[in-house]
Protein 1
Amino acid sequence: MAIRNLRIEGDAILRKKSKEINNIDERLLILLDDMLETMYANDGIGLAAVQVGVLKRAVVIDLGEGPMKLLNPVIVMQEGEQIFTEGCLSVPGKNGEVLRPLKVKVSYKDIDGNEQILEAENLMAVCLCHEIDHLNGVLFIDNIIEDDISE
Ligand code: NI
């Protein structure tokens, strides 16, 4: 495994739409492991492949309950609202409040190629929405409803 360079706001790649993954190969599995290592090294809880410069629809998340690897994640249901103060490894030093659904249902493919459904709420729902936004070239700063003064 290796720590990869994080792409930072201002880098045009962060605004691009990532591509669907159709082929789960060794290269992809290494990418996912490297994404996790990069996320842990930077004290993050979620990371999208585009943040290490790869335009593939891959996301890793670890909220302290073990690593998750999601391919082609899509929100298929959302419910309720919550406001959460978010940050992002690609937008260092900035936090801000974003309105998100309280609960989401996400479909994705696991690393064995099986279709999965994940139901999540609270922080996990925020994290899933934030990472899926990355796959569509969206950053949390696009949706801030109130800036944190600690910037
Ligand atoms: Ni982010």
Protein 2
Amino acid sequence: MSLEKAAFGVRENAYAPYSRFKVGAAIRSADGTIYAGCNVENIAYPEGTCAEAGAIAAMVAAGETRLTEVFVVADSMVPVSPCGGCRQKLAEFGTGDAKVTLANLDGVRETTTLAALLPGAFGRDHMAEDHGDRD
Ligand code: THU
């Protein structure tokens, strides 16, 4: 199955009774396996989770921690833009050059990278061993 098919397919299962905005995400891990996730909302609104978070959770649960490619689809006028939190979550598991495709249901596609989505990302380097105590 392609990344695109996985994202479109899992989107159908999104649980979005409050926003009515279904999102599907698929990620390819370093070993080539595809993991998919959809948004899962909750009546306690802040408890809802994004599609990207679901796909990441599926990958990590399967024992993989590196992703190489991402595909996100929603029924939006312009291709869906991952939220800030999801950009940081994706950056945890992929390098800046990882390809990210954003799509809507009308066949519009935008291709970008993790680095372009999250410039100036907070990363491991900011927590290097020698950061020292400055007190
Ligand atoms: N949402 C995602 O799942 N991924 C995104 O990239 C953007 C937003 C979800 C969260 C919420 O369930 C709904 O879309 C409306 O914000």
